[in-house]
Amino acid sequence: MTTVIIQTISRIMVPFIQLFGLYIIMHDLVSPGGGFQGGVIISASMILLALTVGMSAAGKRAPHASRLMLISSGAVLFAMAGVICILAGGNFLEYSAVPIPMMSASEIAGQLVLAVGIFIGLHNMAAFTTIVFHLGEERE
Amino acid sequence: MMTVGHFPILVVMVPLMAAYLMPVLGLWRRRLCYPLATVSIFISFCISLVLVRSVMASGTISYHLGGWMPPWGIELVVDYLSAFMCITITFISLLTVVYSENYINKELPTGKTTLYYTLLMLVIGGMLGVVVTGDLFNLFVFTEVFSIAAYALVAIAGKREAFIASFRYLLMGAIGTSLVLLGISYLYAITGTLNMVDLSVRLQPWYGSSIVSAALAFLIVGFSIKTALFPLHTWLPDAHSIALSPISVMLSALVIKVGAYAIIRTLFTVFQPGFITEVVPVAPVLTWLAAAAILIGSLFAISQTDLKRMLAYSSVAHIGYVVLGIALATEMGMTGGILHIFNHAMAKGCLFLCAGAIIYKTGLRNISDLTGLGVRMPITAAAFALSALSMMGIPPTAGFFSKWFLCMGAIEAGGWIFAIVILLGSLLTAVYYFRVLYVIYFGEHKHVEQVGTDEVPPGMLVPIAILALGCILFGIFVGIPLSVVEPAVRVLLGI
Amino acid sequence: MNIDFILVNFNYWICVILLLIGLFTTIAKENLIKKIMGLNILSTSVLLFLVSLGDIEGGAAPIIVPGVEVDIYVNPLPATLVLTGIVVSVALTGFALALIIKIYEEYGTLDAEKLIKG
Fold first, then answer.
1. pLDDT tier, B451 (very low <50, low <70, confident <90, very high otherwise)
2. What angle do CA A58, B23, B126 make, to 5 degrees?
3. Residue C106 lies in domain
4. Alpha carbons A9 and A14: distance in angstroms, whole number
5. Tens of pLDDT along B69-104?
6. Which residue of B157, B277, B407, B480 has the lowest C-beta tally within 10 Å?
7. B243: number of CA atoms within 13 Å, CB side?
8. Cβ of C41 under 8 Å from any chain B Cβ?
9. Phi, psi of B274, deg, nearest 5
10. How confident is the model at residue A94 (pLDDT cuts 50, 70, 90)?
11. First CA to last CA across chain C, in angstroms?
12. Phi, psi of B195 (to 5 degrees)
């Protein structure tokens, strides 16, 4: 529905938007942002693609089954991170109890917060893409 | 390894984990959704039983999430009331999920089965999260979890009216939770903490100031929308009557009771009982609104012709009983109100399941069309009759004891007009239930060519029978629920 | 009620004005999409109030940088609470919009007055 200029520019922009989203996910501990915000930015790139290139072409890039798998696995991995802390002897989501060699307790807590942030990012990019794709899909 | 100490979080995480796994499972093999749901709710039910026994043996359980000490971290507090609500929620949910298998296979298109079970697990997990938490913001988050899943479950019925009913529920519920968030942020602004027990200590110097009154007002109004208290009940008749029958059970029996639980926690754990009766007299206002709810709900129910709409208005009236018991703030009144949560959940659950069985077999919803069902579906009709007797409050069914405690509590608090309202409400309840029972048992047969029994499949019949038996067993052995409710009331009132 | 009262409590005034605008839009406008927009304004006003509680005059960002002495940090907790609130608001809006699409398919109109009449 859009002109050649918009389609070309958005095709070029999408990988950079995704890289920026990944940057925000990865710098969870030291800058504003984190898993949730980075995931939303990555899903914004897919939404941009859907708006400019068309829903069917964008839908091939993010098929329904992989989106559902990402949603489920992101949430399940987050819950599993909590249960691993229970198995390691602490309370639910007590990151400092997990015994990883060569790291002190506070370092483990930091790294596990980042890991959980990555899981949330995975979940969110699939979830927001699903919401907008479902709202915008072709209806007969 | 896993000890008893971790059960407060496990009772919430098991249904939620099942909800996270359900979409992928549905994509792979749709037939496995129902077993996963049943197994996870059964595990939650067993964990709740262990929690109740543990709380009765050693008092309130406190669990620190993430290992952080309470005012800084989220704390899960399981006291007698929380354990009681956990047992109620998991018991009724287990029976609803077992009932859902046959009902959903017939009434819902097959593409939506996975979605239905996912949303059902989210509702149950959200409600369990509300009742075990000791942190006010965590309560808000879990309230939103089960609310949004409940809006979606009302709309999944797929009929035209279901979308409008769900939209109306959504608008009112979302305004309610925004007001709750505003109240919580006022309390956070003046004390700097979100833990309920810590708030009750830190709010003491602020009693009598306008910000505390404003926060209390926002919290009570917001939770009253969730629990469908009298002027804010207008979303309930559409949503509960148009939804699928297992969802009507979940909404009427459990979701509005969790709203009442949130009101109990706000009035008695965050604010002291003395504050709500003397400094800012919000408890007397709630008693008058509850009395109006009882009378007006019953009056509206009498004039209905659709069976499920009548049961929905009956829910409006009976949540009035619960809030009346809570707001009387005396020992017997609160015992009656909290016991009525359990009794009404069992009785209304059985009534809606019976209505669903009638719709499954015959497709009839109008009361005057139900003639002769006492012969065609004897067990369903008998269960309906038994639950209706419990709702009216006829001894020795369970409903009699909760209404007796409510009357005693009203007289003890000096409001004998509320005792009159309770008895009048029971009379009106008897009017509309006896009308249905008359049509079912004594109406003339319309379909004379088929006079054999034609019951629903056992997967639907067993939950109906268990709930009906529960109505009468928990009336004869009323000491079993009372042994949990009476210590709960003593802890809440600080006696 | 002098000008100082308004200027010092500036964030509370904005929150209350936005709350009332959102509530009015939700109740009084007839188009369903405008009602959802009003709901969003309502949620946003409450979250705005919550996030403005954390700001302290002259505070630094709440990240410990080794070697830098800071005497007061900005409170990070309200920001986290607001993040959760935004997630809730987005989920609600997404679901409400899907419901509006279904209502439009079934009824052909988005006018609340006509929809109530059936």
1. low
2. 115
3. 3-117
4. 9
5. 888 888 999 999 999 999 999 999 999 999 999 899
6. B480
7. 29
8. no
9. -65, -35
10. confident
11. 49
12. -75, 135
Interface test with C, best of B141, B172, B177, B185 (most C CBs within 10 A): B185
The domain tally of chain C equals: 1
The CATH number for C61's domain is 1.10.287.3510
Contact status, residue B248 vs residue B99, Cβ threshold 8 Å: no
Query: Which of B42, C57, B364, B27 shows the shortest CA–CA distance to A73?
Result: B27
Which of C95, C97, C109, C115 to mutate to probe the B interface, most B CBs <10 Å? C95
Residues of B in contact with C50 (CB under 8 A): 181, 185, 188
Identity at B380, one-letter amino acid code: T
The interface predicted TM-score (ipTM) is: 0.94
Residue A114 scores a pLDDT above 80 = yes
Phi-psi domain of B169 (left: phi exceeds 0; alpha: psi -120 through 50; beta: other): alpha
Contact call for B164 and C115, based on CB within 8 A:
yes
Domain ranges of chain A: 4-136
Check CB contact of B166 with chain C, cutoff 8 Å. yes
CA distance A44 to A38: 10
Cite the beta strand spans of B292-338 per DSSP E: none
Question: Please, what's the b/e burial string for B404-422 (b: 16 or more CB within 10 A of its CB; e: otherwise)?
Answer: bbbbbbbeebebeebbebb
Between A30, A128, A135, which is nearest C63 by CB? A30
Among the partner residues A128, A135, A139, nearest to C97 by beta-carbon distance = A135
| Interchain CB distance below 8 Å, C46 and B185 | yes
A82 part of contact set with chain B, CB < 8 Å: yes
Q: Is C62 on the interface with A (CB under 8 A)?
A: no
CA distance A49 to chain B (A): 25
Radius of gyration of chain C (CA): 20
Contacts A–B by Cβ distance under 8 A: 49
The torsion angles phi and psi of B154, rounded to 5 degrees, stand at -70, -35
SS (H, E, C) B330-352: CHHHHHHHHHHHHHHHHHHHHHH
Left if phi > 0, otherwise alpha if psi is -120 to 50, otherwise beta: which for B193?
Answer: beta
d(CA A120, CA A98): 20
SS3 B410: helix
